[in-house]
Specification:
alpha/beta; 7-stranded parallel sheet; 9 helices; Rossmann fold
Length: 278
C-alpha cells in the first residue's frame, strides 16, 4: 500500500479496546486514518479504548476514543451523533463488537448453557452491527471510502463453539449480503470478513493451560492490515455482499504481520467450504 493511503479518512471500529478490533484500529492508524475507537473499558488499563487510541496515534493516525456499550441502543445512537457533529461523514465502518459469554462457551449442549448467551452472541454479534449500519448509512453516503466491514467467522459455515455462535455469524453473513443489494445504488460496499485463528489476548490466556502451539495463528494487526488494504482497493463495489477470507487479502495485497510473517490459511477452510452449511 502507498504510505498513509487512508490519510484524512474517517473510520469507526466498534469493540476495539482489545483483540481483533484493536488490531484493525492500529492498522488503519498505520495508513493515517482518523479512527473512532469504541468499547466499554476506559482509563489506564492496557485493554481500554484509551490505550488503543494511543496505539493509533503512535502508528501514525488520529485516535478518538468514545466509550460505548454496544448492547445499549442509546449509546450507539450517541456515538454516531458525535461523529456526525465532529466529522460530518464516515468513510469506513468496521463492525467488530462482540460479547464473549461469562463463563465462555466451548461446546456442550445448548440446554446446558444459560439462554442469555443468545443475547450475547446474536444480540451483540449481529443486532448491534445492524444498528451501527443503520445509524452510519447516511454518513457513509457522504464519504469517499463507502465501506462497511462486518467481522464474521468461519462459524458462519460450520459448527464452532456453540449453537448461538453459529447463529450469530450466519446471520451476520446474510445481513451483509442483503445489505449489499440495498446499498448497490448508493455506491457503498458491504463485506463480511473471515479471520483465521487469531491470537487475541483472550485466546492467548485461554490457551496457556492447554500449551497449544499458536505460532501459526494470525495476529490482530495482521487481520487489521487486511482491512486497511481492502479499504484502499480500486474494485470495492465488485466485492460487495461477499465473504472474504483474511488469508486471501494477505495473498492479494502481499501483507505480513508485525513479525514479518504471513500465517497459513484457516486449517478447516477446505472442509467447511466443500459442503453446504450444516
Amino acid at each position: 500500500m502507498p504510505s498513509k493511503a487512508l490519510e484524512g479518512m474517517i473510520t469507526v471500529v466498534t469493540g476495539s479496546s482489545r483483540g481483533i478490533g484493536r488490531g484493525i484500529a492500529r492498522a488503519l492508524g498505520e495508513q493515517g486514518a482518523t479512527v473512532y475507537v469504541t468499547g466499554r473499558t476506559t482509563g489506564d488499563s492496557e485493554l481500554s479504548i484509551d490505550a488503543t487510541a494511543r496505539m493509533v496515534e503512535q502508528a501514525g493516525g488520529i485516535g478518538v476514543p468514545v466509550q460505548t456499550d454496544h448492547t445499549d441502543d442509546d449509546q450507539i445512537a450517541a456515538l454516531f451523533d458525535r461523529i456526525r457533529s465532529e466529522a460530518g461523514h464516515i468513510d469506513v465502518l468496521v463492525n467488530n463488537a462482540f460479547k464473549i459469554p461469562t463463563p465462555p462457551v466451548w461446546g456442550g449442549g445448548f440446554w446446558e448453557h444459560p439462554y442469555t448467551i443468545w443475547d450475547d452472541q446474536v444480540g451483540t454479534g449481529a443486532r448491534c452491527h445492524y444498528l451501527a449500519c443503520w445509524h452510519a448509512a447516511q454518513m457513509l453516503f457522504d464519504g469517499s471510502g463507502k465501506l462497511i466491514v462486518n467481522i464474521s467467522s468461519p462459524g458462519g459455515l460450520g459448527y464452532h463453539f456453540s449453537t448461538t455462535y453459529g447463529v450469530g455469524k450466519t446471520a451476520l453473513d446474510r445481513m451483509t449480503a442483503d445489505m449489499a443489494v440495498e446499498l448497490e445504488p448508493t455506491g457503498v460496499t458491504a463485506v463480511a470478513i473471515y479471520p483465521g485463528s487469531v491470537a487475541t489476548e483472550f485466546i492467548v490466556e485461554s490457551n496457556k493451560d492447554r500449551k497449544r502451539d499458536m505460532s501459526s495463528y494470525q495476529t490482530p494487526l495482521f487481520v487489521g492490515r487486511s482491512i486497511a488494504a481492502l479499504a484502499n482497493a480500486d474494485d470495492l463495489t465488485s466485492r460487495s455482499g461477499k465473504v472474504i477470507w483474511v488469508e486471501d487479502l494477505a495473498d492479494e495485497f502481499d501483507l505480513f504481520d508485525e513479525n514479518g510473517h504471513r500465517p497459513p490459511g484457516y486449517p478447516r477452510r477446505a472442509e467447511l467450504t466443500a459442503a453446504p452449511k450444516s
